[in-house]
């Protein structure tokens, strides 16, 4: 008996050696065969090689041409099967069609739709449409619709880190559009996220929840959701170049314990609230805040609002907290430019332009600081810039000689500006938005030829000593050619 078994094993090994890959191919195509004998029977363990790329089309089928791909190996009509089949780090190409699936991505993969308007994932109103549970997944080119409505459901639910969502349409989900939970280092870019949730089930376009940090949301349109972006107990995130408008409640909501978030160069318009802070140490910079009920509402402290255009809101900025900084903004055509409530104090408000706010330019029943002392100046007030209004600048230093009284209490802007504040680039003498050899030529012509004076003259005061002379010429040469420091950014605050 033992001799017979031994001979059978020898025979099996000999066949494998003689025929090798041809036998394997004949038996199983793309399978690796490991044949062993157990209790007198041949057992075949067939494990498929994983493809580097697979293609999914809802028109593919077993026995079809399938664009020349191999059914069950690199051709599927189901996205989840394609994800399962592709090698780790591989790419799943999804051709146009509607795919009624709830996908779980549990391996590193690139999921690429043919066209975001023609390649749709429909979750059927249950669960997440897409759930990402591993790091470093990339998704692009999809429409994602029809998630479930339970608390944690979303069109795309990210439970991992360092993923990229790009060029997608995320809309008409009963849950949130995109939801990040304890998820960091992700980038969401060039996505349209709209019409998620409804008045009976308020949900957000994008949610960053539970210590989701260092995420970037950039170049996205986020509209017609219950809320645009909800940052909840999450810090150090960036929203850049986004348009966030016509959301029912809040454009951006920053909840408690959410610090060091930065909102830059974005447009928050036609929302209930443009931005509302309940957290501290956040920054809004270079944004348009327009046509909301409340433009910016802050309940947190030590936030910075800088360089924003805040217009046509009922309340431009509503302050319910202390120690915030508001500077370099154009605050115009609101009912209330700034409204600061009582018991709040030490908010620093300077270098802003208050123009034609209809009820109050500013109202302050607290105790706040409305200038940066008279060496730098306070704010410009369109109703206090002419002698007929009592606004005199007898020494032509750019500061009105009398303070501007803030409605609501005893607060004053002690150093109101005589002209609108402008973000001058010191050293840019020829006003072409860059400091270079053209400005060096300009200052030489002014100092030693018949060249025109810089306008305003302070642009030539690179070393900020209140005079334009050879010291500034030396300064710009050192800056351009000798590794010297950049011109002092405060040389024109206020302009002279």
What's the number of helices?
Answer: 4
Radius of gyration of CA atoms, rounded to a whole number:
32 Å
Name of the CATH homologous superfamily of the largest domain:
Single-stranded right-handed beta-helix, Pectin lyase-like
Number of domains: 4
CATH topology of the largest domain: Pectate Lyase C-like
The CATH architecture category of the largest domain equals: 3 Solenoid
Q: What do you see in this structure?
A:
The structure is a single chain. The chain contains four helices and 44 strands. Strands 4-3-5-8-11-14-17-20-23-26-29-32-35-38-41 form a 15-stranded parallel sheet, covered by helices on one side. Strands 6-9-12-15-18-21-24-27-30-33-36-39-42 form a 13-stranded parallel sheet, with no helix packed on it. Strands 7-10-13-16-19-22-25-28-31-34-37-40 form a twelve-stranded parallel sheet. It is mainly beta and 496 residues long. Strand 1 and strand 2 form a beta hairpin. The protein has four domains: 47 residues, no CATH class; 176 residues, Pectate Lyase C-like; 129 residues, no CATH class; 73 residues, Type 1 dockerin domain, CATH 1.10.1330.
Helices and strands, with pairings:
Layout lengths: L1 H27 L2 E8 L2 E8 L2 E6 L18 E2 L2 H7 E9 L2 E4 L2 E3 L4 E4 L5 E4 L7 E3 L5 E3 L2 E3 L8 E5 L5 E3 L2 E3 L4 E6 L5 E3 L2 E3 L9 E6 L6 E3 L2 E3 L3 E6 L5 E3 L2 E3 L4 E5 L7 E3 L2 E3 L3 E5 L5 E3 L2 E3 L3 E5 L5 E3 L2 E3 L3 E5 L5 E3 L2 E3 L3 E5 L4 E6 L2 E3 L4 E5 L2 E3 L10 E2 L22 E2 L6 E2 L23 H12 L21 H12 L15
Parallel strand pairs: 3-4, 3-5, 5-8, 6-9, 7-10, 8-11, 9-12, 10-13, 11-14, 12-15, 13-16, 14-17, 15-18, 16-19, 17-20, 18-21, 19-22, 20-23, 21-24, 22-25, 23-26, 24-27, 25-28, 26-29, 27-30, 28-31, 29-32, 30-33, 31-34, 32-35, 33-36, 34-37, 35-38, 36-39, 37-40, 38-41, 39-42
Antiparallel strand pairs: 1-2, 43-44
């Amino acid at each position: 008996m033992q001799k017979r078994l031994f001979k059978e094993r020898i025979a099996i090994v000999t066949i494998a050696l003689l025929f090798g890959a041809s036998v394997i191919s004949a038996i199983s195509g793309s399978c690796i065969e490991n044949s062993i004998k157990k209790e007198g029977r041949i057992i075949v363990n067939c494990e498929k090689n994983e493809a580097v790329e697979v293609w999914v089309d809802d028109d593919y089928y077993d026995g079809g041409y399938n664009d020349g791909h191999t059914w069950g190996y690199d051709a599927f009509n189901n996205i989840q099967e394609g994800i399962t089949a592709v090698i780790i780090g591989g790419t799943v190409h999804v051709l146009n069609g509607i795919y009624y699936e709830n996908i779980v991505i549990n391996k590193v993969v690139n999921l690429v739709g043919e066209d975001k308007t023609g390649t749709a994932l429909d979750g059927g109103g249950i669960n997440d449409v897409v759930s990402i549970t591993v790091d470093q997944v990339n998704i692009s080119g999809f429409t994602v619709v029809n998630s479930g409505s339970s608390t944690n459901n979303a069109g795309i639910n990210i439970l991992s880190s360092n993923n990229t969502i790009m060029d997608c349409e995320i809309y008409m989900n009963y849950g949130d559009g995109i939801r990040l939970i304890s998820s960091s280092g992700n980038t969401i870019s060039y996505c349209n996220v709209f019409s998620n949730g409804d008045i009976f089930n308020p949900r957000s376009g994008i949610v960053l929840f539970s210590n989701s940090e260092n995420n970037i949301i950039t170049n996205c349109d986020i509209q017609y959701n219950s809320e645009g972006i909800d940052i909840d107990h999450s810090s150090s995130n960036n929203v850049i170049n986004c348009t966030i408008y016509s959301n029912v409640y809040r454009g951006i909501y920053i909840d408690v314990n959410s610090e060091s978030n930065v909102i830059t160069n974005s447009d928050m318009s036609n929302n209930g609230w443009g931005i509302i802070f309940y957290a501290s140490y956040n920054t809004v910079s270079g944004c348009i805040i327009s046509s909301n009920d409340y433009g910016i509402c802050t309940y947190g402290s030590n936030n910075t609002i800088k360089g924003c255009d805040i217009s046509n809101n009922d309340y431009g900025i509503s302050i319910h907290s202390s120690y915030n900084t508001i500077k370099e903004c154009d605050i115009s055509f609101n009912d209330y430019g700034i409204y600061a409530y009582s018991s709040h104090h030490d908010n620093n408000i300077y270098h802003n332009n208050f123009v034609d706010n209809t009820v109050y330019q500013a109202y302050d029943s607290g105790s706040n600081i409305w200038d940066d002392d008279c060496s730098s100046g306070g704010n410009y007030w369109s109703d206090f810039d002419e002698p007929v209004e009592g606004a005199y600048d007898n020494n032509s230093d750019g500061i009105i000689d009398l303070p501007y009284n803030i409605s609501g209490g005893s607060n004053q802007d002690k150093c109101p500006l005589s002209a609108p504040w402008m973000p001058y680039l010191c050293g840019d003498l020829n006003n072409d938005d860059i400091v270079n050899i053209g400005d060096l030529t300009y200052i030489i012509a002014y100092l030693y030829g018949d060249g025109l004076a810089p306008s305003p003259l302070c642009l030539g005061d690179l070393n900020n000593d209140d005079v334009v002379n050879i010291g500034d010429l030396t300064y710009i040469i050192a800056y351009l050619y000798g590794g010297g420091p950049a011109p002092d950014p405060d040389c024109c605050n206020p302009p002279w």
